[in-house]
Amino acid sequence: MKYKERKKEEKKRQEMILSLPSFINQILLLLNSGMVLQEAMIYIAVNYKKLDRERQDTFILEYIRVYDDSMKTGESIIKGFYRLGRDSRVKELSRVAGIIADSSRRGVDLWDKLADEGEQLWRERKRTALEKIRLSESKMSFPLALLLIALILITAAPAMLQMYID
Question: What gap in Å lies between CA 25 and CA 31, rounded to an integer?
Fold first, then answer.
């Protein structure tokens, strides 16, 4: 795989990971309000379709595609979402899709499992943000050191010259 393709794939993966916590929160809120899982997922897909094109990231576009495919074929959106998770090669998405699919098949306690997964994804998102901050700080340390040296030279040079002249 070429570098550009790998970079594009990694960007797509990161967008999906960043969108998952808010998606899980939406599902949890709708389930708490009394919606059934299938209805909640359809409701989210319909609202995602209403978003402006520039606000739609990779996850939202893929989710809308799953919704459209499920409407065309008559398949459950839960099955389509499970297939998206399996085919996406994003382990976080496949875990969430697996939890949702297990809930629809076996009736396991969906809310607690999704809440735990959402918490874990938020922690991961926070850790990633802190890592990016540290990286940008380290990139800025060398130019800041050069500026500090330049300021010291600018302020100390007149005093040094004055000492040598007198």
Answer: 10
